[in-house]
Structures are given as structure tokens and as C-alpha cells.
Specification:
312 residues, alpha/beta, Rossmann fold, Arc Repressor Mutant, subunit A, 2 domains, nine-stranded mixed β-sheet, three-stranded antiparallel β-sheet, 9 helices, 33% helix, 22% strand
């Protein structure tokens, strides 16, 4: 069972993501498609998203954006007053109609962003995930699933190379993240820059009183969004454990692991690695210079009895 986050996080996250996706998509191609599908009423989110995509200077002559909104009523996004470069379609139904929406919009082989709000319902079938990969490139944002357990394997099986699944977790009475009822958020793409943009947006809109937890690691510490260091100690522990398991990795590989396998951002990986290097928990090759992507990081031998404690 999921809980709706305090405030308007799902809506704000979608709008924040659209603010970067629309310009990028229309610089890359002459046409692009945005499909939003809701399990149940969409409230104000669907119409707010439609207005947001229409308000971009990239919508000039020769560029075209198609928006398909799928809701239970089919009438929660007002298409009136849109610029000529935006075509809006309303479709009654739920997320299971995503393949129909993608086909009707002729979205294949052009930039495609799909947004699914599952409202605490079960995951849709494989056909929905496959349809979301039809774009070139394709991105998918999923919120509100009943459980996060199957999200990562489902999105990976659909063909997305980069997948991040996190959970928003409410704070307990004492202000500490209680690790209880969670609200899953997933993002899938083929672009490292785009998944980094998603993580930046997630940290930006995260509500006070909620923390972020890695969905595929039930033992992971939930990081409160208001923490000034964004839980850097927890990230150092996770990177060190990953290095102990793998032996060595480049900085680029560790940045990718951070974005897809933790709640943190790529920039946080560099900060965490700097702390591990300063504490002699890891070593680098070459030994000097900037911590660039091709620098190899290797763990030093852990202390007897277990891992070296975190240093942050």
C-alpha cells in the first residue's frame, strides 16, 4: 500500500521533468510526443502538464509536440488555447491503454516521454512497458505503484538501459524517517544526462518530512531531503560495499551506479569518493590529478571483522 506524499510531489516532479525534457526533445527532433496516463482521476496534474509543455520557446515553426492524456474520464486536460505547434488528444481509460495512445500519436522513432500514475494500483502488463520504449529516445516516469519490488526488473526487461527506482518514506513522530509506508517513484531512460536530470529534480521537489530510500535495498538508510549533506555517509558506505564486491571501478562507473542504484545524484558520488580517498579507504589510479571519469578506484583491505566504518 502506498501513501501519497505530502504536498504535490508527483505533480511537481512531472512539471520539473517536463521543463527540461521539452527543450531537449525539440532540439533533437522536429517532433516529439508526451503521453500521460492515470489510474483513476488525474486531478489538476494532467491539465498542469499540458499547459507546461505548451509554454516553451522551442515550439516554433517546424517543430511539433503531440500530447495524449489518458484518464478515467478522458476530460481532465483542457485542450483549448494551445499553440498551433501542440496537438492534444484525450482518451478515456487507464495506463493499460498506453500502447494505443503511443500508436495513435505515431510516436515511434521520435522523442517520447511517458508518464504513468498508478495511484496505488498494480503494475501494468509487459505490453505497456514495451510501448513506452517506442521513442528515439524514450523516457518513462512512473509514480504511485502499489509496490516497488517489480518495477526495476519490469523496466529493464522492456529494454531501458538505465533505471532508477526510489521510495519516498514518511517521517515518524520524532522527525526521523520511519521506514514505513512508501511511495515508489521510477524513471527509465537510455541517457545518462537525462537520469541525472531526474535525480536533480527529485531532490529539488522532495517534501519536508519525507525521506528517500533505495527501493531494491530494504536495509538502506532513508535519507531525509533536508539533510545538508544529503546522507553522504550512507552513500560512502554503499560505494565502499560495491567496491569490495566488484574489486575496482572507474569514477564514471561509480557515478552511474550512484544514479541508478542509490537515491543520490552523480555529483554526490564525487563528494563521497573524495571522502573515501581522504580516509585511505580507497586508492585511485592515477594517484594525482582531477577525479575524472576514467580514474580507477580500488578499495583498500577492510579492517578485520568487517567493512571500514564511514568517514562522513
Amino acid at each position: 500500500m502506498t501513501a501519497e506524499p505530502a504536498g504535490r510531489v508527483p505533480r511537481d516532479l512531472l512539471l520539473r521533468h517536463l521543463s527540461t525534457w521539452v527543450p531537449a526533445a525539440l532540439r533533437q527532433a522536429r517532433r516529439a510526443t508526451f503521453v500521460q496516463a492515470y489510474q483513476g482521476p488525474a486531478g489538476a496534474t494532467a491539465d498542469a502538464a499540458l499547459r507546461a509543455v505548451a509554454d516553451h520557446p522551442e515550439l516554433v515553426t517546424g517543430r511539433h509536440l503531440t500530447v495524449v492524456t489518458v484518464t478515467s474520464s478522458g476530460a481532465e486536460a483542457d485542450p483549448t488555447g494551445l499553440p498551433a505547434a501542440v496537438t492534444a488528444h484525450l482518451l478515456p481509460g487507464g495506463p493499460e491503454l498506453l500502447p494505443v495512445a503511443v500508436t495513435a500519436a505515431a510516436a515511434a522513432n521520435a522523442p517520447l516521454l511517458c508518464h504513468l500514475d498508478l495511484a496505488g494500483g498494480p503494475l501494468p502488463g509487459p505490453a505497456v512497458w514495451r510501448a513506452s520504449t517506442a521513442g528515439r529516445p524514450a523516457e518513462l516516469l512512473v509514480v504511485g505503484a502499489a509496490s516497488s519490488a517489480e518495477l526495476h526488473p519490469a523496466l529493464t526487461a522492456a529494454g531501458f538501459p538505465l533505471v532508477s527506482v526510489v521510495e519516498l518514506v514518511p517521517a515518524g513522530a520524532a522527525g526521523q524517517v520511519d521506514g514505513g509506508t512508501s511511495y515508489p517513484v521510477a524513471f527509465a531512460t537510455g541517457s545518462g544526462k537525462r537520469i541525472e536530470a531526474f535525480k536533480e529534480a527529485l531532490w529539488e521537489v522532495g517534501p519536508a518530512g519525507w525521506g528517500l530510500r533505495t527501493a531494491d535495498d530494504p536495509q538502506a538508510t532513508a535519507v531525509a531531503g533536508q539533510e545538508p549533506d544529503h546522507g553522504l555517509a550512507a552513500l560512502q558506505d554503499r560505494l565502499y560495499a560495491h567496491l569490495i564486491e566488484c574489486g575496482s571501478r572507474t569514477v564514471a562507473e561509480l557515478r552511474s551506479f550512484t544514479v541508478t542504484g542509490t537515491v543520490h545524484r552523480a555529483a554526490d558520488a564525487n563528494r563521497a569518493l573524495a571522502g573515501l580517498l581522504a580516509a585511505d579507504q580507497v586508492r585511485r589510479r592515477p594517484a594525482d590529478g582531477r577525479l575524472a571519469g576514467d580514474v580507477e578506484i580500488t578499495p583498500t583491505a577492510p579492517a578485520a571483522g568487517g567493512r571500514t566504518p564511514s568517514t562522513a
